[in-house]
Amino acid sequence: xxxxxxxxIPFCPNICPYCAFYKExxxxxxxxxxxxxxxxxxxFHASELLPKTIFFGGGTPxxxxxxxxxxxxxxxxxxxxxxxxxxxxxEMNPATVSSDKAKLLYEAGVNRISMGVQSxxxxxxxxxxxxxxxxxxxxxxxxxxxxxxxxxSIDLIFGIPYQSLNSWRNTLEKTVLLAPEHxxxxxLTYEEGTDFFRQRSRGVMKENNDxxxxxxxxxxxxxxxxxxxxxxxxxxxxxxxxSKHNLAYWLGSDYLGLGPSAFSTVRGxxxxxxxxxxxxxxxxxxxxTARDFEEKLSLSLLASERAAFGLRTNQGLDFxxxxxxxxxxxxxxxxxxxxxxxxxWLLTKKGFLLADTVGEIFF
Length: 363
Ligand SMILES: C[S@@+](CC[C@H](N)C(=O)[O-])C[C@H]1O[C@@H](n2cnc3c(N)ncnc32)[C@H](O)[C@@H]1O
Ligand code: SF4
Description:
Elements: E1 2-9, H1 28-45, E2 49-58, H2 66-79, E3 87-92, H3 99-108, E4 112-118, H4 122-127, H5 134-146, E5 152-158, H6 165-178, E6 182-187, H7 195-201, H8 209-225, E7 228-232, E8 235-238, H9 244-250, E9 256-258, E10 263-266, E11 269-273, H10 277-285, E12 291-296, H11 299-311, E13 317-318, H12 319-322, H13 326-334, E14 338-340, E15 344-347, H14 349-353, H15 355-359
Helix pairs in contact: 1-2, 1-10, 2-3, 6-8
Bound molecules: S-adenosylmethionine and iron/sulfur cluster.
């Protein structure tokens, strides 16, 4: 049985200039058709699914209206066996959090929130083109607590143009005061096809790698001294609130992805649904495949992926699994990027900063 289910909800209230996730701002009819298609796709896979984790990602799942969300949740409850659920996450944009929706989600069994706060500095939020203010972010956080959520994660971004070390420190300190159970701190990436990418190409925006490295180190220092465990390059958890769903990806478990642009990896095969909501919906409703990419994964590719992702976590990579790349790892150790314990390899702090380069040795 497949134990991890991802559901991609591709709608957003507005489009952020740095974001490359598949998403759109959409009208009501398109959303209704999408929900119908999604429930059919869930039905199609129901007999092979017994999810321990569900992740509603996007896009902005919380952009669905109350009635659309209600239809989706009711439909999933009727279609799938949800008796084994341990963790059910939904991504929310603070601008689309309401008390009614929060209660609906909580009562339906959703037990983890991942909220895209990004920063508590209004000037930085403006640079990012976000719809919410820091005040709305804080109100949304408390509203989710009032609805009963005891596992909230906050997304933050550093390395943003015009974001000083001081602004980042204030954002980290304010986050620590709110005490979410989990947080993700991402370094800004300039993704092809985004407005930020074009601005960087024109020289309007610039990266500052030294400042970004300082910001990464500051996050590590402030969060670790406040009781958060740095358990993956971009992720911190308090009192063992690691994301079970994301750990399943990183440690190489099978997962099924529903919705446009969603990837699945099941029994050595990987496929992706088409990244176009209208086509995804019409194909699925007509009983045709919505996949636009499929591949069979060789055992060696699966081993490489597990090694690369595993090494990014605080579980590291045990010597046995690392055996094929031993020599390259020794060289990385000599460069101060890796260190070893009795039985495993782990990234050093410097290695965290250059993790993508280290990961290349596995492929
Ligand atoms: C799907 S969004 C989260 C939910 C919601 N759509 C929102 O933006 O509030 C996933 C997260 O990815 C991060 N993210 C997106 N684009 C990024 C980029 N180019 N660089 C770094 N982080 C990015 C943001 O922190 C964002 O909260
Ligand atoms: S960052 Fe979130 S809200 Fe902004 S466009 Fe991407 S998915 Fe949508």
